[in-house]
Structure formats: structure tokens, C-alpha cells
């Protein structure tokens, strides 16, 4: 087990070297433990117990607010703990939290013609992604990625290693599917149910790019056709500046995963036939792949940039194009983008019994991206201004694209939130696991209040 203390020469790299957001936090762990196995994680938690300090965990380092970097903590960095086992016959994978979606799927697709609906951005680690619910590939139809978690192996706040599923240590299993960074333990392994990967060229996409002045017409079209669209097709709308262009565009993307070219074309044809006129560019049922989609996502989320993200589930009965118009038409930087995901029909069904419990038909997120520190205030102020208005029409938010230091809102159904905070206090009564990073990092054993902060003003 490698321990890097504050006075070590390589401390700064250990502290933030794997943090994706280059808007770096001014928080300083007592030490960083670079774990390579479960025994290292157990030893790191026991070290924190001995030192009477907290424990923070880094899987992929992709949280926008850098939740893993905490004062008065032992930071357990899992970046060197990468392992996956595949039971292809039963379509089960056992993977460590720092495995990224791309790393896991490269093994699954290449060797087994299977896939897991992990994060869209290729370098998102499984740990944070699954703990916060997992809005993965084709979530609107296949459901949340955490629904596919059959079990978790966990090191508790006292340093004990437990296996948790629906029959044993049920409370930790329940919390592992939606608690986010407030999970009262350290996950060492996820046991995951897999999907077959599309065969015979059936992974295909259609795209329609419009000038921004057609925003409302196109957005109303996509909202109208989404609820009854094909069950294997993901639907997204993005406002962005195409590379090398000063013209903002409104881009609607359909990604379908079928077992033949013919089935894919049939799935995508209703959009092709009903699309509004006026595209700047379009394509229909183009051959695609998971790897190509990862490449596109990596281009939209470049490394070594500064980020400010926020999000909301917009109320089902809201005038969504009107509510989101400012967000989609006034981006503050050419590398920023606004995103809408269709979530119906997943949003209309009863979820399994798990912590995750907040969603609506319309998921909206802002990914404000820039390069220079002197743009920090302008970009962050723009996000705050937009979100203060959007929250008035929201039912809550997704943990993964949130920063509790800036804005707290509803993240769970009320009863789920109450049960989750009770489980946190039961399994971690002293607040050993850092939990939710709110303003001043004071949430402790109380967790989050699960209420609209700005909407109540």
C-alpha cells in the first residue's frame, strides 16, 4: 500500500492529478493511499480510524465538484485497482470501481459481444457513476445502470469487508443504488448484469443539425415523438458550437442498438419521416459503434479544461422549450453545451426498491466548459443565473451533475431520502466517510436536506 503524506514530493500530483476538472479545489487531504487491492482499502480505512480522520474515495476522478478531495481525510485513490471478471454464459461482470465504461466495454464487446450501459463520457469510473444511479446508454428504455447492480462488495466505516445484495446486508445494497457520494462505505467491487451487444451492423445513428433560430420548433417535435419511439433508441438534443464554427446549432441525435441494419433503419425511420425542414446537416441510419460514440463524447468533454455543471429534471407538464430557451441559446463559451435527454418511458414506471427515486420525462444538464481561469466568474455566474430560473420548473436533480456547495435541491423521493440518511447514520455514526460536500463541508452525519434551496425563496 503506497501512502503519500502531505509533506511528500509527489503529494500535489496525488491530490489532484486524476481530477478531471481543472478548476482545482483548495482542499488538502492528510494523505493519499494508492490502493491496488481490497486489502489496501481495508488498511486505509483502518488507518483513518487510528488517526481519527475521515475517508474520501476517488474512482475515476470525474465528479465536477471534485468530491474526493477533502480536508482532514485519508483519500483512497482506486486508480491502480482495476480488475474485471466476466461470466459470459450468465451475462455477469464483476468490476472494480475505477474501471471506466470504455475500459469495461472494450473487454465485453471484444471478447464476449456483451456490453454494460455505463457512463457516456469514456473516462467516467464505475464507482461514482453507479453510486449516483447511472444515467447510462439508452436509460430512457433500459433503465438506470444501478438497476443492473446485483451485488456490491463494501468496506464499512469500521474497516470490515462485506458482501451486500438483496438477501444479505440489504440496507447497504439498497443505499449503493442511488446514495451517491453519501454512501457510508467504500465499494470494492460491483457485480453487474450485462446486455448483448448489437450484431450485424445494428448499432446505428441518425442526426439532425438545425440553426438555433429553429430551436422551439425542433424541440417541440422531439418532445412529441420521444415517448412512443423505439425501445432500443436513445434520444438526445444538444445545443453547441460545432468545432471551428461561430454559429450555435441545435443538434438532435438518435442512437439505436439493434441486431440488424434493417431493424435499425425501421427504428429510426419515424424520425426521418417526421423531422422538421431546415436542417443544416443530417444523416439517416449511419453505421456507428459504442467506441465511436465514446470518441464523440471525449471530444465534447475535453481533458485539461475547466468545468461548471448543473442539471434539473423538468416537470412533466412544463413548457420545456420555453423553460430551457435561455440555457440552449445563450451559451457563454464555444466549448460549452446544453443537453436534454428523453427519459420517458423509464420515468413513467415504478422503480425497484433502491435509494434512486428522482426522475421525470425531461433531463436537462449544462456543461459549461472553458480554458482560462479569468473566465471562471463569468461562466459560473451564467450557470447560476440560468439555473435560478430553471429550478422554478424542476422537480429535482441528478446527483452526478450537481455541486452541493453551490445549490442543494431534491435528489430523492422524500421517504427514500429519510431512509437513506438513517442508513448513513446507522452504518457510519461518527461520519468517518466524508459524505456530501456541501458549503463548508459540514453535512457530516446529517447528510443532505433534500429540499429545493432556490425554489423556496
UniProtKB/TrEMBL annotation:
It comes from the Eukaryota. SUPFAM superfamilies: FAD-binding/transporter-associated domain-like. Keywords: FAD, Flavoprotein, Oxidoreductase. The keyword Flavoprotein applies. Its cofactor is FAD. GO terms for molecular function: FAD binding; oxidoreductase activity. Pfam families: BBE (PF08031), FAD_binding_4 (PF01565). Gene3D superfamilies: 3.30.465.10, 3.40.462.20. InterPro entries: BBE, FAD-bd_PCMH, FAD-bd_PCMH-like_sf, FAD-bd_PCMH_sub2, FAD-linked_Oxidoreductase, Oxid_FAD_bind_N, Oxy_OxRdtase_FAD_BS. Belongs to the oxygen-dependent FAD-linked oxidoreductase family. This is Uncharacterized protein. It comes from Penicillium atrosanguineum.
